[in-house]
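PROTEIN DESIGN WORKSHEET
SECTION A - STRUCTURE
LENGTH: 429
TOKENS:
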């Protein structure tokens, strides 16, 4: 039975929570013990880019290109307080741009990841960008792209160990396609005491309508929906998991981990909705926010739905749905105890070639390298990396429940989600 509390009343009441109260709810994260120091005040931090490839529209192109050229913030040009000094690329496709762009901007192209951060002379940069997305890599039996994030991360760590010191490291998207390797990466950062930031651009891009549930929101269920049909489904599956997680992590008690995850597809997805495993009301609310939502009954227009169903340790329910014919956006809806209507938003991703959703991500990378303080716990991406991997393993196993002690990831979300709320268009000048 619903109470008479409205969504408007909830959002109004949430604004009265004091910063002190919210800060008191935050727990200690892995980065709180970081031993490495932020960049020296007044000095422009020097960073190295370690990439899979650097070509037009690649993630490295979008992030490192913004460090070189700047980007729009609050409608006006913002030049990051970072200097890209070296670059290593694992592959050089025919449309590679590094050999054209790097000489123009005094960026040295290196033969190894170790050389990019100092090599035999020792660590001499203030930050590392590990951007391993895109390129020609094989798929494994779970339809995952075998990006060498972990291997390149280990090459960076080897230089840290030899140098006796370390610097902040940003890892683009998930930590690894293999959840066990992802946990090793976080464990290594804890061991050596260096700040580690990772994840998707989705949690910090624009949300329409603006939605930032306060810490302690009594979420009972969350649902994310997306539509992706090109190549490996994990590419956008990870993104929607991050989008849903950045909302549900704000629930009462913070993130307490996951009990089980499973993936199903085809008619079984609709049957699960009819049985109450996931909520049709939340799906409708999420799709209602998206500008690309299609016409027609979902059961008729969607050919092969896919669902990843998550049971959190505290009983909260989470589901992400890939409905290719229903939308090309990524959206979230959540049910909150005491509210009649769901909270819903979609994550705005301005299109190519500019892909301005890299603006907020680059901004947070800049702050991270400069201060040594991640804007959000790396444990979020550790959990979503684990969910993505186990979800695909469940799909391969015909929907079998996946359980693991490595799903027991606990952390507290930051008070400020860090997503951009300003205009995403240029002011014009």
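SECTION B - SEQUENCE
RESIDUE ASSIGNMENT:
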């Amino acid at each position: 039975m619903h109470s008479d509390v409205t969504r408007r009343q909830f959002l109004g009441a949430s604004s009265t929570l004091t910063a002190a109260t919210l800060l008191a709810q935050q727990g200690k994260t892995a980065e709180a013990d970081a031993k490495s120091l932020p960049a020296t005040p007044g000095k422009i931090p020097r960073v190295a880019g370690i990439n899979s490839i650097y070509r037009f529209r690649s993630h490295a192109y979008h992030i490192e290109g913004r460090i070189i050229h700047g980007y729009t913030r609050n409608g006006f040009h913002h030049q990051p307080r970072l200097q890209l000094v070296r670059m290593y690329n694992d592959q050089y496709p025919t449309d590679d741009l590094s050999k054209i762009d790097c000489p123009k901007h005094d960026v040295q192209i290196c033969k190894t990841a170790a050389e990019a951060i100092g090599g035999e002379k020792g660590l001499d940069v203030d930050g590392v960008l590990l951007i391993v997305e895109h390129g020609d890599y094989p798929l494994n039996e779970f339809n995952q792209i075998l990006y060498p994030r972990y291997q390149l991360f280990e090459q960076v760590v080897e230089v840290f160990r030899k140098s006796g010191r370390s610097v902040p490291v940003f890892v683009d998207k998930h930590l690894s396609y293999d959840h066990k390797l992802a946990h090793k990466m976080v464990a290594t950062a804890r061991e050596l005491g260096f700040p580690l930031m990772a994840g998707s651009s989705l949690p910090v891009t624009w949300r329409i309508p603006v939605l930032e549930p306060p810490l302690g929101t009594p979420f009972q269920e969350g649902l994310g929906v997306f539509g992706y049909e090109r190549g490996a489904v994990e590419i956008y599956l990870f993104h929607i998991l991050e989008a849903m997680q950045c909302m549900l992590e704000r629930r009462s008690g913070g993130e307490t981990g996951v009990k089980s995850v499973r993936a199903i597809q085809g008619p079984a997805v609709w049957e699960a909705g009819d049985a109450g495993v996931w909520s049709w009301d939340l799906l409708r609310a999420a799709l209602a926010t998206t500008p690309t939502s299609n016409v027609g009954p979902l059961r008729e227009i969607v050919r092969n739905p896919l669902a990843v169903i998550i049971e959190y340790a505290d009983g909260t329910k989470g589901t992400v749905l890939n409905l290719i014919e229903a939308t090309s956006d990524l959206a979230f809806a959540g049910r909150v105890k005491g509210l009649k209507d769901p909270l819903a938003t979609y994550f705005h991703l301005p299109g190519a070639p500019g892909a301005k959703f890299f603006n907020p991500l680059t901004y947070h990378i800049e702050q991270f390298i400069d201060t040594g303080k991640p804007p959000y716990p790396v444990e979020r991406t550790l959990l979503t990396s684990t969910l993505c991997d186990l979800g695909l393993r469940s799909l391969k196993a015909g929907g079998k429940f996946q359980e693991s002690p490595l799903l027991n990831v606990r952390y507290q979300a930051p008070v400020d989600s860090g997503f951009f709320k300003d205009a995403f268009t240029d002011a014009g000048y």
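SECTION C - NOTES
Residues 253 and 364 are 26 Å apart (CA to CA).
The radius of gyration is 21 Å.
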